[in-house]
Each structure stands twice: as C-alpha cells, then as structure tokens.
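Listing S7. Sequence submitted for prediction.
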Amino acid sequence: MIRRLLVADRGEVARRVFATCRLVGIETVGVYSDADTDAPHVVEADYAVHLPGSTPSATYLQIGALIAAAQRAGANAVHPGSGALAENPEFAQAVIDAGMIWVGPPPATLRTLAAKIETKNLVAEAQVPVLPTFTDPDRVPGFPVLIKPAAGSGGHGMRVVRDATTLAEAIASTRREVGGDVFCEPYVSNVRHIEVPILADAQGAVVPFGERECSVQRRYQKIVEETPSPAVDVALREDLCRAAIVAVRALGYVGAGAVEFLLDAAGDFWFLELTPTLQADHAVTECVSGYDLVRLQLLVAEGGSVPMPGPPPIRGHAIEVRICAEDPAYAWLPAAGTLHRFAVPDIAGQFRPLPQPGLRLDAGVTDGSVIGVQYDPMMAKLIAWAPSRQEAARMLASALARAHLHGVVSNRDLLVRVLRHHAFRAGDVDTGFLDRHPEVFAPLLSSVDAVRLSCLAAALAGAAARRASAPVLSSLPSGWRNVPSGSQTAVYDGPTGPVEVGYRMNRHGDLAGWWVRAVDPEELDLAGLGQAPVADEHPAVVVVQAASNRVVLNVQGIRMGVHVHRVGDVSYVDSPEGSVALREISRFPLPALEAAESSLIAPLPGAVRRVLVVPGQRVRAGELLLTLEAMKLEHPVHAPSAGVVSSLPVQPGAEVDTGELLAVLDPE
C-alpha cells in the first residue's frame, strides 16, 4: 500500500495529485526549486524537500536528487507527474531499485515508448494504422513532411517542411532543440487530434474512457480540449477504442495513459503515440465519466485491478482551456512577472471530479505568484461540464471573460474568442483552426467606446484613491473648484499606444463632460499640463459610483460596473466589455536612455542558446541571428533588414532580461 507519496513535479500537477491523496488518506511529499519556494504546491504538501537551483535540469529533472528527497522524507512511492520524468525509464528504474512503488508503466515499456520508431513498428504489426516513417532525408518521397523527435512528446521540436531546400536546416534545428535524433512522416493537413484515455492493470485488463478532441493547438501543443469529440459517432468511437486497446496490449502497457491518433474528414485515423502520463486534459474525462483518474492510477500502481468491467458511459459534455502566460498576438511570446490577481468567478470545485455540472479550476498559481521563465507558461486549466456542448462552451467563455487576470499577459482573450467562434460552436475544428481564423487573435476589448470607458473608469478610480488618501478635504470630489477651470487629465499607455483622458466635475461632484484622445508620443512631455488641444466630448455619462476599486457608470441609460485594480502605476480594468491594462504615464517623466539605432533587444527574459553571427558580418533581411531559450521553448531573433552586425554583446549561455541589448545591426 502507498503510505507516503512524493510527487516529482510542480504547479497544478502536484496540487492535483495531492488533492486525491488527501481524499484517500495518503501522506504527500512535495519538492521545490529556489524559484518555487513559496509556490502553492509547496504549501499544500505534508512535507516538502528543497532542490537547490532554479532550472529544471538542476532541480525537477535531477533523478538522484529526487530519489534522495523521497528517502529523506520517508516516502514509499513516487508519482512522476506529467512531465518528462513520467516518460523516463531510468527514473522509473531508480525508484524501483530504491525499494519504492513507481506510479507508472514498467521501465521496459517506457524504454519501448521512448523509441518512437520502434513503437510505431510494434503497433503497425498489431494491425493498427500508422503513417510511414522516414529516417533518411534523401529518401523522403514527397512533401510536405513533419519532422518529429525520435524521443519525447508534447509537440516540442516538431516542424513542417514543404520543400527539399529547407529540409536539412529544419532537421538540424530540431536536433539542436530536442538534443537527439529525429524522423519524418507525411504531413497530413486538415486533420483532428483525437486521443483515447486508457487504464490498464497488471492482470491484462484495459479500459478506454471514450475519446478527447485536442485539435485547437498552438505550436503543436493543445490549448482547448473536449470530450466527447463532435466528429466522433458511436461506431467510430468503438473503432478508436478497439485500436487503442490493441496498441496498449502490443506495447505491454500498465497504468494510466492516452493513445493518440490523427483523424481525417473521411473517418480514417492513424496512430501517433502512446503517452505514458496522466495528461493535462484528464479533467474533462473525469467530468463525463465520474471517475477520479488519479485514484485509479494509484490503485493500479498498488497492484489492484481496474474496478470497472468496461468503458464508463459518457455524461454530458466537458471542455477545458489552458490559461497560459503568453501573448498570442506576438508569436506566443511567453510572459513573466508577478501575477497580482488570479480570480475566476463561480467555481464549483478544484482538482476533483465535480458532483454535478459546473466549473472546475485546476491552477498552479494564486494571487502573488511569480511567473518565471524557467518553466512551462501554463498557469491553470479551466473546465466546464454541462449537459450539452453548446452549454459547456457558453459557460466556459463567460467565466473566462469575467475572470480577473492581472500582472502578466495571458491567452485569455484568444480562448474566449475561440469558444465563441461560429466554427468552433459548429464543431468545425482541426489542427489548423488558428491558422484559418486569425480573427480570434483580436482582443476582446476592441471597440473604441469600450476602450474610452475603461480609460475614464481608470481615471475616476485613480482620483478616488488619491482623494481617500488626501490629508485634508478628502470628502471633496477630485478636481472640485469654487470656480470651475480646466479638466482633470491623465495619460495612459494603452494596448494601441498612449491615450489621454480628461473630465470635468461640476460643483455638485457630477461629471460635467469627458473626452479621450490618442496622443502622439512626441507630445508626452505635455501630458497633464493642459497644453494639448481638447478632443470632442463624448456622450453624457453619469457617474453612479466612483471608488478606488470599482466605478459604476450610467451610459445612455444603461448602468455598467467596472472593476479597477491598481498596482503601482498600472490600472487593471475589467468590465463586461473586456479587460485592459493601462499604465499611467508620469506627468513629469524622467529622461530615459535611448538605445542605439537598429538595436535588437530581448523580447523576454531568458538564456542565449545559439549565436550564429559575429561582429562585422553582413546579413540578409530575415536571417537568423541568435536564439533565446525561455519557458522550454526556443525563440528566434531575426535580422529586421539587411545590414552589418556592428555590435554583439551576448554569448551562448548568457542570461538576459527583457529589454537588454542583444545586437546592433547597421542597415545598408
């Protein structure tokens, strides 16, 4: 029996396993790096062991350190989480050799799964459809092809190559990124990504849990998952589940996992891989099946049998989104910083199967969490379970839109637009969904009037906060004068550039007029001094309430509440129209250092991984100069134009912060 369990992972994965352990009476041991000292999973663990260092390779991926931590804490079992260690046969063997229970498939099975080509061959021999594999670039019969790592999973390192001229460089780049061999297979477009979650015990029983649709992806990584799939009928579900069972038995698999397939419009499917982990989208399966998959996983690890005779019936529909600290509008650039507020309304439960339809939140962060560049950018998973797909999508979109996510850029707006998109609602999705529908990248707060009202609310809330803290006459409205004079003004750096908002109050403290206008950056030295021309005033708005954290406006007879959360000089404004972060520009800004012309600066903090040029080298427009590594991904820095590299202050391995100089390119 498992008595005390160490979870060799962090964030929401560790918290998810801890939740079930508390329910079934298993003591928990967490591990944490320097960067995670105050993380929620550390607080929730019964015991926690420090792993010195901050990078994954020095902490959460250190097999020896994890085994020592488990032994020091008295654990008799180890759960690998859902990351790379869950697929590592050496880690599994080390746990077993140390006399502890390994919560996962046998090491021999993991060794087979680590060899992707061998896995495909074994599955093909069992008569499960697979795509052909090419290991020799000179023998690729046609294009496009997809380059894939020969080991590992999660979509990392995958690249589409459409002609022979770029194949060699793409293969080399993938090898550098994944640190190992790669192979090619035909790239099939307009396909769905379908997976069948399974549970297999040591007695030979294999139970599938329906199917999950994971087609809405970015960089071959899932961001929206649901079950059941709108493209799968009863007959196709039976075929997929039958193929999954055959693949599991052919590979000698034991434990929880998922068999992944590609599915085309004609109903043909091909085996991709068997992922030997409790996947991030397991929550949707728990919702529609009613089973706690972590509890079943622990049961099988203890040598128990699968407790159900066959696939459980599907109850309703569940959809999950992954909330990530990244900016979809800028090539999914990861974001780092302090998460000042993380609040999602109307949550019915966390980390556990729901007793009835509602919203579930599995989060690895809370208010005040620091999002670093060392780890994956996913902050939380939000799941909606409802009687129908349309109800689940509507519930999930509404909760996301009303959530308060302050401090770091996230993909929230994109997720809401995907869930509300007519094609998604119709079930018309595949792995190219985001490429076909660029309109989902637009921010929710996109109308001019909504932005103006947000600016007005931020200004009124700021004024209320200043009046509340004023040492004298704090009860008077901001800007009140016996003889009305100029407008109160504030300048904000908004999503589309600097804007100035102004308003006048009458002697009764009511809003007498207001305006918002775009500001030319060259005019910022005049901000707030009353020297800029006043724009046309907007329609009358009645201020019902103006407090430092909430402003209620009556706009042409319709009342609207706006929440304002100010941190430093940034106001986070949440309204029914959407959310926006507005940084107030100082009336008297300090002079800033100007970067040299044609400077290339770091778009995010990270480590310089590769430098492909030297000072004095002439480069072409678009040529790759160097790469940064952050949040497990490699981010290229290209030459914006043709020119000569005049300065190159960074070298491979250097740590850089946002805005730090990477290179100076003198244009031709």
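Caption to Listing S7: primary sequence and predicted structure tokens for the chain studied. The radius of gyration is 27 Å. The first helix runs from residue 11 to 24.
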